[in-house]
């Protein structure tokens, strides 16, 4: 297995339209995300990366939505996603729409998202599926240096392992858009053969286990030994 961290940096696309069938990808992601966006609540939604900023999140009840990236528009905060300028546990939800595929250190990016998320905060990840038609096209040498084939495609299992190490509870994961070059993405194939979908979606929540015991709760759960009826103290001879 190749290491997650790489020394070189590949410039991510600024807009979905910069990659072939990019608008189809964006529409497919918005369709899959819409039922989950209605479940998000809180005060702050962080959309990390240029592609995340273009995802329509109007269905989300969180009104304060901040776009963060090093460049591009529309951006409210210009910063490196690996060094988010936000306090710990200050964000209710993080959207990383195809941010990991062009990140040189995905582990650090996930740790930063975990740092700024509140307890029970939401994390949404999307990316490309290496076991798909897009993954096969990545094997063609001529296409390796073009977008989106210059991105990194992590398997769903590998990403789930990363989230488990950070103590995230995965609520939902799916693959879709089997045929990249069609708007519907091959609806019949996506229904019967979803494992070949070129897009992946993961919905997770941050779970925090307390490291110190609550003394009040501990006293309530402690089993008390009842005094035996008719018992007397041990008698000692002088």
Defining key terms:
seven-stranded mixed beta sheet; single chain; 7 strands; globular; 25% helix; 238 residues; alpha/beta; disordered C terminus
List strands and helices in order, with pairings.
Blueprint: H1 22-37, E1 44-48, H2 50-53, E2 64-69, E3 77-78, E4 91-97, H3 106-116, E5 117-128, H4 133-137, H5 156-165, E6 168-176, H6 187-192, E7 199-206, H7 215-221
Parallel strand pairs: 1-2, 1-4, 2-3, 4-5
Antiparallel strand pairs: 5-7, 6-7
Total number of strands:
7
**Radius of gyration, whole Å:** 24 Å
Major β-sheet annotation: 7 strands, mixed
Mean pLDDT over the full residue set: 86
Number of helices, counting only DSSP H or I runs of 4 residues or more? 7
> How far apart are the termini?
77 Å
Spatial strand order of the main sheet? 3-2-1-4-5-7-6
Q: Judging from the principal axes of the Cα atoms, what is the shape?
A: globular
Amount of beta strand: 15-25%
Order of helices and strands: HEHEEEHEHHEHEH
Helix fraction bin: 10-25%
Query: Ranges with pLDDT <50 over ≥5 residues?
Result: 231-236
Q: Structural class of the helices, strands and pairings?
A: alpha/beta
Keywords: Methyltransferase, Transferase
InterPro entries: Methyltransf_11, SAM-dependent_MTases_sf
Domain Methyltransferase type: 72-125
Protein name: Methyltransferase domain
How is this structure best described in words?
The chain has 238 residues and is α/β, with parallel strands linked by helices. Helices cover 25% and strands 21% of the residues. It has seven helices and seven strands. The protein has helices spanning 22-37, 50-53, 106-116, 133-137, 156-165, 187-192, 215-221; strands at 44-48, 64-69, 77-78, 91-97, 117-128, 168-176, 199-206. It has a seven-stranded mixed beta sheet with strand order 3-2-1-4-5-7-6, with helices on both faces. Helix 3 (106-116) links the parallel strand 4 (91-97) and strand 5 (117-128). The radius of gyration is 24 Å and the shape is globular. GO terms for molecular function: S-adenosylmethionine-dependent methyltransferase activity. This is Methyltransferase domain. Pfam families: Methyltransf_11. InterPro entries: Methyltransf_11, SAM-dependent_MTases_sf. Residues 72-125 form the Methyltransferase type domain.
């Amino acid at each position: 297995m190749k290491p997650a961290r790489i020394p070189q940096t590949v410039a991510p696309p600024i807009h979905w339209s910069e990659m072939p069938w990019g608008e189809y990808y964006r529409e497919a992601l918005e369709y899959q995300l819409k039922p989950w966006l209605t479940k998000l609540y809180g005060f702050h939604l962080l959309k990390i990366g240029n592609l995340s900023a273009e995802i329509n999140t109007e269905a989300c009840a969180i009104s304060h939505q901040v776009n963060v990236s090093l460049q591009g528009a529309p951006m409210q905060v210009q910063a490196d996603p690996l060094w988010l300028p936000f306090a710990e546990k200050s964000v209710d939800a993080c959207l990383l729409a195809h941010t990991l595929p062009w990140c040189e250190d995905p582990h650090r990016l996930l740790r930063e998202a975990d740092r700024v998320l509140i307890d029970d905060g939401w994390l949404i990840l999307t990316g490309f599926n290496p076991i798909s038609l897009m993954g096969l096209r990545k094997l063609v040498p001529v296409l390796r240096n073009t977008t989106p084939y210059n991105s990194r495609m992590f398997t769903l299992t590998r990403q789930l392992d990363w989230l488990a190490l950070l103590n995230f509870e995965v609520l939902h994961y799916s693959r879709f858009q089997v045929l990249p070059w069609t708007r519907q993405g091959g609806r019949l194939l996506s229904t019967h053969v979803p494992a070949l979908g070129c897009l992946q979606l993961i919905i997770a929540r941050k779970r925090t286990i307390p490291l110190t015991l609550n003394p009040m709760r501990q006293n309530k759960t402690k089993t008390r030994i009842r005094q035996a009826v008719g018992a007397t103290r041990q008698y000692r001879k002088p």
